[in-house]
Structure formats: C-alpha cells, structure tokens
From TrEMBL:
SUPFAM superfamilies: WD40 repeat-like. InterPro entries: KICSTOR_ITFG2, PAS, WD40/YVTN_repeat-like_dom_sf, WD40_repeat_dom_sf. This is ITFG2. It comes from Bugula neritina. One of its GO terms (biological process) is regulation of TOR signaling. PROSITE patterns: PAS. Residues 258-295 form the PAS domain.
Length: 416
C-alpha cells in the first residue's frame, strides 16, 4: 500500500458566535455526515462548498476566503442533507437543503464580483426561494437523472428505511412550483448510501441502495426491489452498514461497484456480483465516493475513516493511503475553485470546529513506482541512451548509471 501526502490546503472557520453569560463565545458547529456538498452554487462556473449545521444554519464558502461567504438568514431546523444542482430543471443550479423535521428549502445564490470575494459585503445573508414540507427523518440525498433525458429527480433516503423520489413541477402561470413524489420503496434494513448504475442495455439508470452485510438493493421504477451482493466475501456481517458507489470505470469500457463497510472492508465488484478486488483495514470507514485523482479520465474510489485515514483505490487493484491528522466528523471529495479553475479536492470537517480543503490533489498514479522505473520512463534519459547506443543496458548497469547521475559515483560503463 502506497502512502501519499498532500500539502496544499485551506483552513476554514466553522464556529458559531453565541452569547453565554453575557459574553460572546465561539463554539464549533455540529453537522450530519450528508450535510456537506461541493458544486457551483452561484452559477459562475466556479465550485463552492455548502455546509449545513444541526442548529439550522446554511454556510457557503467560496474561493480562498476563510469565513463563510454566504449564510442563511433563517434557521432551517436540524439540517441533515445538502446538495447543489439543477433541482428545478431550469438549467441553473440551486442549493437544496433538507432538515430532520421534513422541511426542504431551495436557495438561489446570485453570483458576486471578484472584489466581493476578497472583501465581503455588509450583509451576506441569503433567503430561501421555496419552502415545502416533505417526509421527516431524511438521512441521504442524491440528485439523479434516471432516464438520461436531462431531467433531475431528487432521491431521498430516510431513517425509517424508506426511499422516496421527487420531481419539481412548475405551475402553469410560471410563478413558482412544488415538489411532487414519484416513487416510494420500503426496505428491510437501514440505508447506507444512494447511487446509480446503468441498466443492462445502457439506455438508462437504476437506483442502488447500500445495505448491511455487504449487500445492495436495486430499486426499479415500477416499484419492484431486487436484493444483490457479492458472490463471496471475506468479511460478511449482517449488522455492519455498507456504502456503495456505482459506475466506477475500469478503463476497458466497463464499470463496476465500489463498496466499503463500517468494519473496514473495501472492495470492487462487477454488476454480476463477482469481486474484482477486496481488502481490509483496521479502521471504521464512511463517506465512500469517487473522483478522478490521476487525470486519466477514470475515477478512483475514495473512502475516509473516523480518525482521518483516507484510502484511494481503483479497478487495477491499486491502493494508496493519506493520513489526515485529526478526527473527522464529515468527509467529501469533489472539485472546488480556489482561484480561477475547479481543482480536485478532499474536504474534511473536524470535531474541533475546522474545515480543511486539500486542493489540487493530483497523483501521477495510485500504485507505488520505483525510482529506476520513473527514470526509465523519462524521454530525456531514453534519448541520452540512444545517442550513445546503450539502449540495451541491463537493469544493473542502469542502476549504476543513475547512481552516478544522482550521487556522483561514476560507474565503469562506456557512456561518454
């Protein structure tokens, strides 16, 4: 397993100013795991970070500012889920917030000038443009395009083991709209994650729900449910929650599932249930997601643990580890704009009232590569050897040559 390090990071303030005994005190916010999202909240082609707190505040961070760029004016209840996307199907993004008591709020965030990002305006408060009561006890939220027609559907998982989907419908007069329920599925176990996988004919998608015991459930639009899981598993416990992320591309035109469990199992498996890769770590895992971290157009699966240890693995059975040095309350991976462009990033929310954004987290490769192999792949080195007719050097001769180049110990080779 390769150990990696990232050094470029932003540290954001995550405190609430409260009055205690007539004195102002800064106390760290608390949040639910799904109350954090990355996306283009103000439609300026630069991604922001949205965070919802259990005390009902929505905070939006932008650029390299260390404090919240926008905050909600009203308290929204105990926020359980936050996402950013075209929830109203109007070709523009909004911030969608769900609270534990069932209230949803949709925010439209107007863009700001670059000067405002550096020097915030006097009032940075935002107001909900739509408020509606849905079912209470939400715990998971995902925006999906099941029919591949560009129409966004809101999939919500609830703590009472129910999944519901909603769609925004515009009023005929064009002066508003509301969310209407489309489907409902009742499951037999707690919901660990929501994801999408392509249908057998690759014409549309199906909802996939992570279930305890390293299993998952496929939800069909006709209301039917199919229970699935790996054909065999080294660690199989029916009481341990599991998270699933689908559509992880393998590089040969196919895709597969990534799965992690709370007891430390990680695996990749194809849609038939055959395990491609399986490993086990001594950490409790959560926050499974995917992100192209190598720049080759193929996503790697990324999962975090409560003590900050983060694992990156791919379909080639390669794995890398990054150690974040604090206990982690929430984790997300995606893209965030620090300056002018969106960069791949890892976001950690700590229990001590800090948010850390590791940006520009690019790797040349996930697996471990020796120094000799790296030098061998250099075009300048290949040209150097070709000019001296030494392309047939043995590995031992190359080691001596590279040792001379690096440390000044000249080998007994005819390379002058």
């Amino acid at each position: 397993m390769r150990t990696i390090s990232f050094v470029e990071r932003l540290e954001l303030e995550f405190y609430d100013e409260v009055c205690d005994n007539q004195q102002q005190q800064a106390l760290p916010w608390n949040l639910c795991q799904q109350a954090i999202a990355l996306g283009d909240a103000d439609n300026d082609d630069s991604n922001e970070l949205a965070v919802g707190t259990v005390s009902g505040r929505l905070l939006i961070y932008k650029g390299h500012g260390h404090t919240a760029w926008r905050t909600s004016h009203d308290k929204l209840g105990m926020i359980t889920c936050v996402t950013i996307g075209d929830v109203c199907n109007k070709k523009q993004n909004n911030v969608f917030v769900l609270s534990a008591d069932g209230w949803c709020n949709i925010f439209h965030i107007p863009p700001s000038s670059p000067e405002e990002v550096q020097a915030p305006v006097l009032s940075n408060e935002i107001y909900s443009m739509h408020r509606q009561h849905l079912s209470p006890n939400s715990k998971l939220l995902k925006l999906v395009d099941i029919d591949s027609n560009g129409g966004i559907i809101i999939a919500v998982g609830f703590s009472d083991r129910v999944v519901r989907t909603y769609r925004w419908y515009q009023y005929l007069d064009g002066k508003g709209g509301e969310l209407a329920i489309l489907n409902k599925w009742a499951l037999t176990a707690q919901i660990g994650s929501l994801s999408l996988k392509p249908t057998a004919d690759n014409t549309s998608f199906e909802l996939v729900v992570g279930q305890p015991g390293s299993t998952y459930v496929t939800l069909f639009q006709n209301g039917h449910i199919a229970y699935n899981g790996p054909e065999s598993c080294k660690t199989h416990s029916e009481t341990v929650s599991a998270e699933v992320v689908s559509n992880v591309h393998t590089g040969d035109g196919r895709s597969c599932f990534a799965m992690s469990t709370l007891d430390g199992s990680i695996m990749l498996m194809d849609y038939s249930g055959e395990i491609i890769y399986e490993n086990s770590v001594d950490h409790q895992l959560f926050g499974l997601t995917k992100l192209d971290i190598t720049g080759d157009g193929l996503e790697e699966a990324i999962v975090c643990s409560w003590d900050g240890e983060t694992y990156i693995f791919n379909a080639n059975k390669q794995i890398a580890k990054f150690q974040f040095d604090e206990r982690t309350a929430a984790f997300i991976a995606g893209h965030y704009s620090v300056s002018s462009s969106n960069e791949p990033c890892l976001v950690y929310v700590t229990f001590s009232g800090r948010i850390y954004i590791y940006h520009n987290v690019m790797l040349a490769h996930v697996h471990t590569v020796s120094l000799i192999q790296e030098i061998d792949d250099s075009e300048k080195v290949k040209e150097f050897l070709r000019e001296r007719n030494r392309t047939d050097c043995s590995r031992e001769e190359k080691k001596k040559l590279y040792q001379w180049c690096l440390y000044g110990r000249k080998p007994k080779l005819c390379i002058e």
